[in-house]
Recover the amino acids of this structure.
């Protein structure tokens, strides 16, 4: 198993995909008389963002997520004049995000692997509704390289990083190698493969306690442990 050891490291927050819609818009005019809405920003605070009604934008977006995540995306789309498509499991059919969306498509039973994680069914919903882009929110398929690639192959925009970027940064060890090559300041740590307990102790002493152990392919803060000494 591969592990990444770092000193005083913290799990980074999920990528803020909220309002990445604007990153894919081509600004054609200045934002005179632009509409101002509240958007979700850094550190969980809200700030005013300007929306230019003359900007080129998608006419319909499918939201491949559920609950509060989907609700926030839908509200933003409504403010921007973009139609929305909600996909939902059968048990979510009466949920608020489904009622808020302009269209809704049931994609399967409650089990996520049969609905919200089912790439092909969601892609079929995209084709069925004519959505031009998919907003994955976070979790579910938001970091799935295959899904992002399938959308690109079907000329559907994935509102988020490219499949190549997701793949490159998905492994913590590989992402640190990329960051180091780009001269990004790094937290002291060990990027190799930890084979056994003795090597863990040796590496930890080289770095200096406390250390945090992370699974190289982990996510969402899972599998992280802080060690304060050799024991």
């Amino acid at each position: 198993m591969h592990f990444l050891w770092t000193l005083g490291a913290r799990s980074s927050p999920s990528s803020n995909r909220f309002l990445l819609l604007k990153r894919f818009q081509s600004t054609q005019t200045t934002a005179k008389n632009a509409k101002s809405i509240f958007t979700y920003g850094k550190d969980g605070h809200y700030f005013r963002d300007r929306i230019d009604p003359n900007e080129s934008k998608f006419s319909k977006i499918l939201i491949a997520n559920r609950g509060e995540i989907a609700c926030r995306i839908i509200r933003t789309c409504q403010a921007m004049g973009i139609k929305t498509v909600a996909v939902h499991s059968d048990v979510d059919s009466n949920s608020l995000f489904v009622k808020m969306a302009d269209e809704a498509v049931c994609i399967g039973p409650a089990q996520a692997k049969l609905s919200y994680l089912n790439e092909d069914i969601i892609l079929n919903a995209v084709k069925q509704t004519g959505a031009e882009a998919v907003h994955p929110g976070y979790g579910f398929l938001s970091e799935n390289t295959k899904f992002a690639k399938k959308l690109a192959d079907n000329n559907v925009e994935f509102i988020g990083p490219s499949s190549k970027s997701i793949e490159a940064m998905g492994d913590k060890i590989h992402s640190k190698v990329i960051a180091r090559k780009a001269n990004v300041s790094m937290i002291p740590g060990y990027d190799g493969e930890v084979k056994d307990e003795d090597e863990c102790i040796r590496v930890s002493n080289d770095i200096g306690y406390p250390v945090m152990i992370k699974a190289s392919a982990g996510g969402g803060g899972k599998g992280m442990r802080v060690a304060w000494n050799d024991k």
The helical segments are 67-80, 96-100, 119-129, 145-153, 163-170, 172-181, 197-207. The two ends are 20 Å apart (CA to CA). The mean pLDDT is 80. The chain is about 30% helix and 20% strand.
